[in-house]
Each structure stands twice: as C-alpha cells, then as structure tokens.
Specification:
There is one protein chain. The protein is α+β, with helices and mostly antiparallel strands. It has helices at 22-25, 40-43, 80-89, 114-117, 162-177, 200-215, 236-246, 293-304, 307-325, 364-371, 382-392, 443-462, and strands spanning 2-4, 7-12, 32-35, 46-50, 55-60, 63-68, 71-76, 104-109, 133-138, 141-145, 150-155, 195-196, 221-231, 251-256, 260-266, 269-274, 277-280, 283-288, 334-343, 347-357, 379-380, 403-408, 413-416, 421-425, 428-437. The chain has one domain: Anthranilate synthase (4-Layer Sandwich), CATH 3.60.120.10. The strands form two sheets. Strands 1, 2, 3, 4, 10, 11, 12, 13, 14, 15, 21, 24 and 25 form a 13-stranded antiparallel beta sheet that branches. Strands 5, 6, 7, 8, 9, 16, 17, 18, 19, 20, 22 and 23 form a twelve-stranded antiparallel beta sheet that branches. The N and C termini lie far apart (43 Å).
Length: 463
C-alpha cells in the first residue's frame, strides 16, 4: 500500500494483541510503545511500536550527545532545543499518511528543561542524572488501528529501501502470530519499603508556605509534589503490562533507554499538533471513585459542583490560552470544552480543551518555548510558580511532569503530561504525585490527594 510521497505502508495480519509485539523487540535498542489502546474511542485510535532508532539525540544542561551513523558526537551548547530543532529539520519531509504518526522522533522532554526556557534557580538536588531531552529517530514502525483492529507496518526508507524495512518487520509479525510463544511470568507481591522525599509533616508545612505566597500576591496557584521510591529489580515490560491493567489511560507509554525505563499511564495530553492545528488538554480537579455505584455517583457530583476545583481549572485554562496565544494566529485560540468530567479506574478528573491555529513561522522548538512545562503541573503565574516549586521540592522532578510523545517527519506531534508514571533506574522505582495548591486548599485534603494519585503506582510496583 502506497501512503503518498516518501512513505510505504503494508497492512499485515496480526492474530494476537498488538502489545505482544513488544515481547519480540524489548531487548533491542530503545524500544517504545505509545499506547492509546484503552481509550482509543475518545482520544486517539492508533497505537505505535518501534525499536532500534537510526539516531539518538540527548541533552543534559549544556552537554549534547548525538549518535548518528554509528558515530557519537559530543559538544557543549546552551541552546539544546534549537540544536534539536536543527537536527530534526535535516529529516523533515512532507508526506501523505492515514496515520497521525508514520515515523520520526519519539522520546521525552524532562520537566527540568524549564531551566533552558526560563531563568529558574537550581536549588533542588539533581540526584538521578536523567537527560533534559532524549529522542530516537525511528524509520519503520508498527501502527495499530484500534477501531478497525488493523495492523500496519510503515517505513520511509531513510538509510535503506523502505521495502527492506517492511520485509524485516514483517518477520516479527510472523513470530508474534505463532502459538505458545508467551509464558506469563509470576508477579508475586513484594513489600519493599516505599519512602518519600517529604515526610507528611514537611509536605503539609510546604503547602502552608505555598498559601503564604498566595496571600502575599506572588501567585494564584502552585503545583506541589512529592517523590516516592522503592527497591525494584524485576522486568520493566512486565511492570508496564501490570500498570496498564490496573490503570489504563489514553496517553500511556513504555520506553526502554537501557540504563533507565519509563512506564507511564498518563491521562493528560500536553500538546497535539495536526496540520498546524494545536490543542492542549489541562486536567485539574480529582476525586476518588466510590466503593460502590451509589458512592461513585455522589463523588462525581461533588467534583462537578466543586467551586474550588473549577476555579483551579479556570486559572490553568487562562495560562494555557496565553501560552497558545504566543504562537497562534490572532483570533484562533478557543476554549472548546471548559469542564469535562473524565472517568478512570480509581479517580474522576475535570479537564478542559483549548485549541488554536499555529502561525506559519512556528516550529517545534517555538511551541515548546511558549508552552513548556504544562500549566496544569506548574501553576499561575507559571514562572513564579516554577521558582517556588524549585524552592520547596527537595529533588528535581526529571521526567515527571515533563512530556513524552512523538514528532512526525511532517512536523505533526502529540505529547502527554508525564503523570501517573514510574521511572526505573539503578535497581529502584521512582514515582511522583501531588496537586495544585490554591488559597482555599485544605492541607490535609491536599496531602490525601497526592497519596490517592500515587495509589495505582504503589499497587503496580508492589505486585
């Protein structure tokens, strides 16, 4: 099947679950799974799998590494986003495809990239050495259409003929279709100690400090979080499958970088660009699901009628509108939905949808500089909120509240907000949770909300 200029598409007969393809590529370099399978009917009907990138771009502070054509290039440059944009521009191609992503860059932007965008102090400890930017360049991916239940192989032919790439990937499909290939490993419950970078008393005290900043007029809202960690030495892919079953989410992902792995079940979209149309979807407002149907209905009504949660979301919508306004054509920024109730296995959320039409001169780096990090996980005003976050949170957030996603060869993109996410590194699992603090926040309730948001992640790592 010809997809248009510069892209070849082959429909294949997949007789098993799309996620099972990962069993055959998980030991290859940098495998990824961008997974919308559990909520494809609402937020995106496609999922994507790839491995063995042609090139890798990494940046940490001013240090930049590019692996290309089997050669490592290292240099110092303070403008890492601009360098990445130039690297991406080398591979930009206009093409026609029925899929939102047919190849390009997949990876993440760490929250700590904010220090390259704004002048944010560096008071918190950087104890995990996670890159600020990390992307692989993928030519030859698997695409699954959840609505039609069709599987495709897509290739462009950058370094070798697209037909050869499709032929090689088709052998993986044949392996996946064979019976008796999968042995389910036992996932016995473990009880390793889970610690936090805050005690309860310290976290509640920090909430009080945020409220004093609000009282003094510094901010209207700040997102305060705490990080949990525990010993973890089991298989990363099995952990992702477990989290996916416990807490399915529309913007989930699994990426293995060798020395660390990302296991994400995020419900929140950060930025999507489709043919110059841009969308962001901030979430604010959380309440636990009820233990029975009656309590569930009550909790849903409480959230929908919560003036605190609505005002919190409105503040963030205003920030997001302003961010999109910096890069959109005049008069095109709109709030499509203000208060949407969204249901997940353990919580309800309130979300909003804001859209715009990008100016012709705007590129990926411009979008990130204007909007990153997301307003829902920083606060309002954003820059002052980030300064307060760095002052109060003892350790760097790294990947948490950054963004994971893809950047297609044609410039289209889709990135999540990294919440409900586990990072494995150095025989440990790290995950983080928190919430937006406003003037009428109750300290005890905010602490309980953070614990609630971490509940599914705890359950996944404990088995």
């Amino acid at each position: 099947m010809q997809g248009g200029p510069w892209v070849i598409i082959k429909k294949v007969n997949l007789k098993t679950g799309f996620d099972k393809i990962l069993n055959f590529v998980k030991n290859c370099p940098y495998p990824f799974f961008l997974d919308s399978g559990k909520h494809h009917d609402k937020f995106g009907k496609f999922s994507f799998i790839g491995f063995a990138p042609l090139a890798v771009f990494k940046a940490k502070g001013d240090k930049i590494e590019i692996i290309e054509n089997n050669s490592l290039h290292e240099f110092i440059n303070s403008k890492s986003l601009d360098i990445f944009q130039n690297f991406f521009d080398k591979y930009t191609k206009n093409h026609k495809s029925p899929f939102p992503f047919s190849g390009g860059f997949v990876g993440f932007l760490s929250y700590d990239l904010c220090r390259k965008i704004e002048k944010i102090p560096s008071l918190s400890e950087d104890d995990k050495n996670i890159p600020d930017i990390c992307f692989g360049l993928y030519d030859g991916i698997f695409v699954y259409d959840h609505k039609k239940r069709d599987c495709f192989i897509v290739a462009h032919g950058i370094n070798e003929p697209a037909g050869n790439i499709i032929k090689n990937l088709n052998t993986i499909i044949k392996q996946a279709n064979k019976k008796n290939q999968y042995v389910k490993s036992p996932h016995k419950k473990i009880k390793n100690e889970i610690t936090s970078n805050f005690s309860k008393e310290e976290y509640i005290k920090s909430i009080g400090r945020v409220k004093r900043y609000i009282k003094n007029g510094d901010i209207y809202q700040a997102n305060l979080t705490q990080r949990f960690e525990t010993k973890y030495t089991r298989d990363a892919w099995l952990l992702y499958q477990r989290l996916r079953n416990i807490n399915p989410a529309p913007f989930s992902s699994f990426i293995d970088y060798g020395d660390f792995q990302i296991i994400s079940s995020s419900p929140e979209r950060f930025i999507r660009v489709d043919k110059r149309k841009i969308q962001t979807r901030p979430i604010k407002g959380t309440i636990a699901r009820g233990i029975n149907k009656k309590e569930d209905i009550v909790n849903k009504k409480i959230l929908l009628n919560s003036e605190k949660d609505k005002s919190e979301l409105i503040m963030i919508v205003d920030v997001a509108r302003n961010d999109l306004g910096r890069i959109s054509k005049i008069g095109t920024v709109k709030v499509e939905k203000l208060f949407s109730l969204e249901k997940y296995p353990t919580v309800y959320h309130l979300a909003s949808t804001i859209t715009g039409e990008l100016r012709e001169d705007v590129k990926f780096a411009d979008i990130i500089k204007a909007t990153f990090p997301g307003a829902s996980i920083t606060g309002a005003p954003k820059i002052r909120a980030m300064e307060i976050i760095d002052e109060l949170e003892p350790t760097r957030r790294n990947i948490y509240t950054g963004s994971i996603g893809y950047l297609d060869f044609n410039g289209d993109m889709d990135f999540n907000i990294v919440i409900r996410t586990i990072v494995l590194k150095g025989a440990k699992a790290f995950f983080q949770a928190g919430g937006g603090i406003v003037w009428d926040s109750d300290k005890e309730s905010e602490y309980k909300e953070a614990i609630l948001k971490a509940k599914t992640l705890r359950k996944a790592v404990e088995g």
